[in-house]
Amino acid sequence: MHRRKFLSLLGGAGLASAMGVTKSQAASGHSFNGYPDAMGVLHDSTRCIGCRKCEEACYQVNDLPKPEKEFKDLTVLDTKRRTDAKTYTVVNKYNTAGLEHPIFRKQQCNHCMEPACASACFVKAFTKNSDGSVTYNGDLCVGCRYCMIACPFSVPTFEYDDAFDPLIQKCTMCHPRIQEGKLPGCVEICPKEALTFGRREDLLGIARDRIRKYPDRYVKHIYGEHEAGGTNWLYLSGVPHTELGQIEVGKTSAPELTSGALGAVPMVVGIWPVLLTGAYAISKRKEKIAQEEKAEAVRATRESAQEEAEAALKAAMDKATKDKAAAVEREVKKAVAEAEKAFEEKLAAAQAPAGEADTGAGESPEEEA
Amino acid sequence: MMKGRSLLRWAGLLIAVALVSVWGHEARSSKAAGDSAAGYADIITIDIVGEMGSTELPPVTYRHDLHTEAMKKLNKDCSACHKTQDDKMSLKFMRTEDGSVAEMKELYHSNCFACHAEQAAAGNNTGPQDGQCRSCHNPRPAANSEWKDVGMDKSLHYRHIAAKTIKVDGQDVNCAACHHVYDETAQKAVWKKNTEDSCRACHKNAPTPVVEGGEAMKPALNDAAHLACVTCHVSTATAGGDTGPVTCAGCHTDEAQKQYKVVAEVPRLERGQPDATLVTADNLKKATLPAVAFNHKLHEAALDNCRTCHHEGIATCTTCHTLAGKAEGNFVQLEQAMHSLKSQASCVGCHDTKKQDPSCAGCHSMMPASSASQQSCASCHNTTGFKPEELEGMSNDVKRAVADAIVAERPTAMPTFRDEDIPETVKIDALVDKYEASNMPHRKIVKTMIAAVADSRMAAGFHTDAATFCQGCHHNSPLSKTPPKCQSCHGKPFEPSKGDRPGLKAAYHQQCMGCHTAMKLEKPQATACADCHAERTN
Ligand code: SF4
Ligand code: SF4
Known about the structure:
The structure holds 2 protein chains of 2 kinds.
Chain A: H1 2-18, E1 39-44, H2 53-61, E2 90-94, E3 103-107, H3 116-120, E4 126-128, E5 134-136, H4 146-150, E6 157-158, E7 168-169, H5 175-179, H6 185-189, E8 195-199, H7 200-213, E9 233-236, H8 254-262, H9 272-351, H10 357-360, H11 365-368
Parallel strand pairs in A: 1-9
Antiparallel strand pairs in A: 1-8, 2-3, 4-5, 6-7
Chain B: H1 2-29, E1 39-40, E2 43-46, H2 48-52, E3 60-63, H3 64-73, E4 84-85, E5 88-89, H4 101-121, H5 133-136, E6 144-145, H6 154-162, E7 181-183, E8 188-190, E9 208-209, E10 217-218, H7 221-238, H8 248-252, H9 254-259, E11 276-279, E12 292-295, H10 296-302, H11 307-310, H12 317-320, H13 334-339, H14 347-354, H15 358-364, H16 374-380, H17 388-392, H18 396-409, E13 426-428, E14 438-440, H19 442-452, H20 457-462, H21 486-489, H22 504-518
One iron/sulfur cluster binds near residues 112, 116, 117, 153 and 170 of chain A.
C-alpha cells in the first residue's frame, strides 16, 4: 500500500523536477549554525501543571481539527500521546519514583538549530528561519517522508487520512505570529509561565540562573542546549530528562552526520537509489548517534571491564571445576570408604563360619561398587 | 572472528549455568535451606577465612534463628555454641579468640558436622552433612538479609537509664553499666561521671589499641555493641528480669523497631552540659562578628541525640573547629562548621533542612538558595556588647551566665501584626478576562500559616520583625506593614529588561500554586481554575 503510494509520488516528483523545481533544492553539505538572534522557548517542567491550555491554544491558532475529547478533560493525560498531523503539541504526564506528584512535559517540534528534517528534504520544503523556527512549505513537499525518518525526535507526521494531497504537519513555533510581534499561542496562554519565550541565548542564561538559584529544584542539565546540535526549544526539569521521555540523542546534529549521505544531491530522477540509501543511512544513524557518542566515552572502560569479566569468568570456571572435582572426590572417597567397610564386614562375616568363604567371594563388594 | 569468541563465551556461560543448576539442586535438597528468597534479619555471613586470606569456597550464609530455635527444642542454651570468658559470653562460635585459617576452618567444620551428624542419627531434621559443601557455601543463598541498622535514640536511652533491671553495685544511676573510659592507673575501664560519650568516640570500625602503642585492643564498634547489649540482655533474661531483645531480629528488623515503646517526654540528660553558652572563636582578635549565644537546652530537646552536632565524641565546637581550621576538625574552619549548607551538623545546614517542613516550605521553597541577608546574620550574631579582650578573660561560668541572659531575651513567639492591620481579603482583578476576579481570603491565609508555626521557637527566633513573615509572599520588598502590590513589579511577561521576572498572571499562579504544593495542600488543585476564580459566562 505505502509502497504503491510512494512510487506514485516518485512519479510526481520526477515530474516536478522536470518542470524546473530543481532551483529550490539546496542540499550542498551546508549546515545551519543557528541565527544569533533566534528566539526560543524554555519549558520548565517544575512549573507545568498539566492544564493543557497550551494544547488548546495551539488548536485555535493553527485551526486544527477538534479533538475527540475536550481540552478540559485531563483524563487524557493518563495515556502517553505523541504529536500527529492534527495535534502539533501534546502534554504528557510522568510519574517518577520518589515523587508524590506527577510531572508534566509539553512536547512539539524542538526547532533544531541544524534541523535534520531540512537536511533530509531534497526539495527544501523545510526552512530554518532567522527567528529560530523551522517551517514547512507544503507546496514543495513531494511526500517522500524522509523528514519523518530523519528527525531525531520523531516529530514530523504525515496526513495519512488525506488521500489527495497529504502533507507533513508539525509545530511552526507560531512563526507567523512571531513575525507579527506576538507570542506563540502556547506561550501566551500558559498560566504559569512554564513556557518562557525569548532569545535562545537569553533563555540559556535564565535556565542557568534558575538552576543556580534553586539547586535542589533542578537537575543540572538544560535539554536542548546541545542535543542534536542544539535546539531552539529548551527544557528544565527536576528529574533526569530521560524520565520525562526525552531520549538521549547525542550532541552531533543530523546534517553533520548525514552530509555524506545526502549532501550535494542534484535534483534529478536518476539519483533515487542514492537517496534511498541516504534515507536508510539516516534512519540507521539516527538510532546510532547517541549510542556512538556514548560508546566512544565508555569504550575504554568497557574494554577493560570486559577483560576483567572474562578473566573473572575464567577464574570462576577454573575454581568451579576445582571445587566440583574436590566435592566429587570427597563423595567418591566416602563411598569407597563405606564400600570398604562393608566389604570388611562381609569378609569378617564370611570368614567366621570357615569353609563358606569361597561361595561368599561371588558377592564381592567390588562388583557392587 | 568475533563470532568464534562470542560462541566460546556462550559455551562458557552454558557450562556455568549447568554447574550452578547441579549445585542448586544440592542446595535445595538440604532440609535446612530457607524459604525461597525470603528475607531475614538473623542472617550471618561467615567469611572468617576469607577475611584472613583467599577462600576456596564462597562464604557461608548462616541462619542464626533456625539454630536458636533448634537449641531451644533440644533444651540447650547459647552455651552450646558460645563460650564464656570472665563471666562474659563470647559472640564468636565455639571460641573466645580467633585462630589461624586452618584452625578456624577445622573449628567450624568439625563442630557443625558433629552436631548435624548427631541430630541426623537421632532422626531429627538437621543441617547439611560432610560433603554437602554447597549447602552452606552457597553463593546464592535462598534467603536474603533484611538486616537493618539500629540506633540508641533518646527514648531508648532513657529506658535504659530508667530500667530497674540494670543495677550497678554501689551506684544509684545506671550509667556505669555501659559507659566507661580507660583508667591508666587502675589499668581498666571505669565509669567517670560527666565523661559519658557516644560509643563511637572510642570504638571505631576496626579494633584500635587501648593505649597508643599498647597491645591490648578496644573491640570494634560492632563487637563492642553486641558484646555489651546482647550479653546483658541474655544474662538479665536468664535471671528472669525484664530486658531487651536477644535475637538479631529483635533489634535489626523494621517490625521490631516499630514496636519499640517510645517515651514521649524524655527528661534532660545529665552530663554537666550548659543550658546556654557563648560560642566564641579561638582567636578573638580575629573574630569579626559578635559571639553567638547558643541555646543548648533548646537544641537538646529538639534533637534525637548528641551526635547530630557533636559527631563521634562530645567536645566544644572550637576544640576542633578553629578560625584557621585544624587536623582534628578535618580542617573544617569554624565559619564552615557553623554555616555549611551541606552539613547536617552545622547550624545553617540543619536549620535549612528544617525549612522543608510543609509549614515552612510554603514560603521557603520559593526563596533562592543562599539568600542570606545582613538581617539573618544578626539573628544569631546579635551584639553581646563585650569586646574581644573582655571575652578572652571570661571564665566559662561567666560565659554561660552571659549566654543565659541573651537567650532569655529571645522571643518565644513570632511577632505579628494586629488583625486589623492585616487586610481581610485581597481582590485580584487586574487580569479579569475569561475569569472573574478572585477574592483571596488574605487574612485567613496569613493566620493559618502563622498558627502552623506558633509552637516553633525557631520561627520565633528568626522571624524577628512582624513584617518578616509577610516577605514569604511580598518578597524583595523592605520590611513594611504596607508592602508594595504585586503589580508594582510584575507586569507584562518576557520583557528582556526584566530578566526572568514573571508577568503578573504567572507571578500570582506561581506564588499561590507553588506554596500550595510545597505545603502539601490538596485543595484547590492547580488545574481547578474555577475554585479560585469563577469562569465568565458572557
Ligand atoms: S525536531 Fe524534528 S521536525 Fe523539528 S526541527 Fe528538529 S528535526 Fe525538524
Ligand atoms: S499551558 Fe503551561 S502549565 Fe499548562 S500544560 Fe501547557 S505548559 Fe503546562
